[in-house]
Amino acid sequence: MNSRKEPDLNQALDRLLRNASAARQTAPAEMPFAVETRVMAAWRQSRGGVSDFAAGLRLLRYGLGIACAVALVAVSLTWSGNQSEPDDIYAISNATANLALLQ
Amino acid sequence: MEEPGLDVQACVENTRRGDDAAARALYQHLLPLVLKIVRSHLPRRTAEEDLVQAVFVKVFTKLDQFSGAVPLEHWVSRITVNTCLNQLSHEKIRPELRHADLSEDEEAVIQNLAATTADLAPEHSFASRELVDKMLANLSAPDRLVISLLHLEGRSVEEVRQVTGWSIPLVKVRAFRARRKMKKHLEQLLKEGSR
What we know:
Structural class of chain A: mainly alpha
Number of domains of chain B: 2
CATH architecture of the largest domain in chain B: Orthogonal Bundle
Number of strands of chain B: 0
Number of strands of chain A: 0
Strand content of chain A: under 5%
Order of helices and strands of chain B: HHHHHHHHH
Shape of chain A: rod-shaped
Largest sheet of chain B: none
Number of helices of chain B: 9
Oligomer: heterodimer
Distance between the termini of chain A: 142 Å
Shape of chain B: elongated
Distance between the termini of chain B: 53 Å
CATH superfamily of the largest domain in chain B: Winged helix-like DNA-binding domain superfamily/Winged helix DNA-binding domain
Order of helices and strands of chain A: HHHH
CATH topology of the largest domain in chain B: Arc Repressor Mutant, subunit A
């Protein structure tokens, strides 16, 4: 049996925490410059600054858009060209008849 | 370096507009505060620099949400504490601390606590801090946080409420439970030390 008087745990914990709080108060508030640079880069990127990859994607998107527009115009012109009827619908039959008459 | 007499409000406005110099000035102004909180609540397997970076990226990207209703430092403190808490919540609680795990200096602190009722000598503060850190590692992240803020950083319950966003009763209850767990650990260490 331990004859020593049990210390008041509340008081002992307070003393320990008080003593511990005195440590590390003089730690320098410094960070490597790289951290600042990384933070600034991340901030710029989040504000809409684009990375090379994002810029490439944007260019690709524009290119695809323009290609689609050109293809649409070409298809529509071809279609309208196929749909338009000759000025004289009897031109060919008349020509055949005329040729027959001439012979 | 932090500029003397920095106009924080103007700095915030300019940073929102994308001013690089203002953002750097704000970073330098807030770094000591962020670093102090990060160092107090640093998870074991996380690099200090990574956590500081994560905090500042959050601060800058959310700067548009800062209404100015509270001081900027309080707002940044809350972001920092929540970022640390998120990291800490992924950590597993360490197994129970045994007397055999203590260093010689930490053992001397325990002996001192058991032998006298006087305050511990200042030269024991580093060992005390190490011991407290080991004891805190046995607690959950919120318990660790509340003890650090209240007892190691000397903040008031109201300040803890502002920083964590918890209600005052919750802060008190968490502090009470965390202290109870720490007392249990301390009692165990004192018992083992007296054998």
